[in-house]
Amino acid sequence: DIQMTQSPSSLSASVGDRVTITCRASQSISSYLNWYQQKPGKAPKLLIYAASSLQSGVPSRFSGSGSGTDFTLTISSLQPEDFATYYCQQSYSTPRITFGPGTKVDIK
Amino acid sequence: EVQLVESGGGLVQPGGSLRLSCAASGFTFSSYEMNWVRQAPGKGLEWVSYISSSGSTIYYADSVKGRFTISRDNAKNSLYLQMNSLRAEDTAVYYCARDDIVVVPAAQDYYYYYMDVWGKGTTVTVSS
Fold first, then answer.
1. Using CA atoms, how far apart are residues A64 and A51, in angstroms rounded to an integer?
2. How far apart are CA B125 and CA B128, in angstroms?
3. Do A50 and B102 touch (CB under 8 A)?
4. Chain A residues within an 8 Å CB radius of B1
5. Nearest Cβ partner of A91 from B46, B114, B119?
6. Integer Cα distance of A78 and A11 in angstroms
7. At B31, is the secondary structure helix, strand, or coil?
8. Which residue of A has its CA nearest to B44?
9. Chain A nearest CA to B77, separation (Å)
10. How far is B80 from chain A (nearest CA, A)?
11. What string of H, E and C letters represents the secondary structure of chain A?
């Protein structure tokens, strides 16, 4: 199975900050990497697919990059509605997909 | 509006059974592959099961194989998860999620998969 790790596990940031979350795969997954946002008590929401493609309706302050084993999700200017937990997910071994453990972004 | 609505969750004793349903609307259900994903209290996301658009191809996570059965009824726009021999560790919110795909550039027969539509979830609690 492909294992996913994320760092940091949590971070505190202020509105307007640039935030970067890292995701690493246990083997090369090319660009088969998706990012989701989840707020408490809500379902996950797709932000980025195929490592860098922005899902329709998602603000352009979100961006994704990377290929192979190392990926990043960047929020260029953190907004109040962005405080949430972010998960990466590999689709290389679809349908046996795996998620990262999540990164919680909260208010400093 | 594209929508998935789960139902069927509840409190069940260890060893018991439960059947979850997911009602789809706003899109051509029969054209999409579907998944169940769960989230234990305070934990991350765990993929549970996958079913192809026709229902002919099915996969399970090792943690539920032999105990859970995924199925679908395209005429009723519905996805199901039959859960037997339930354990305390199956306690979670269960989400149904739609798979969408895009072709990998310059690789015609390869696709990027992602789960673009999720239901709000249904809670399963396994406890005596």
1. 6
2. 10
3. yes
4. none
5. B114
6. 12
7. helix
8. A101
9. 20
10. 17
11. CCCEEEECCEEEECCCCCEEEEEEECCCCCCCEEEEEECCCCCCEEEEECCCEECCCCCCCEEEEEECCEEEEEECCCCHHHCCEEEEEECCCCCCCEECCCEEEEEC
**A49-72 in b/e burial notation, b at 16+ Cβ within 10 A?**
bbbbebbeebeeebbbebeeeebb
For residue A47, give both structure tokens: 């932000």
Pick from A92, A77, A79, A104: nearest CA to A28? A92
User: Using the beta-carbon criterion (under 8 Å), do B116 and A55 form an inter-chain contact?
Assistant: yes
Place of tokens 């352009």: A60
What SS3 class is residue B87? Answer: coil
- pLDDT tens for the 128 residues of chain B, in order: 999 999 999 999 999 999 999 999 999 999 999 999 999 999 999 999 999 999 999 999 999 999 999 999 999 999 999 999 999 999 999 999 999 999 888 777 789 999 999 999 999 999 99
Q: Which residue of chain B has the CA closest to A6?
A: B44
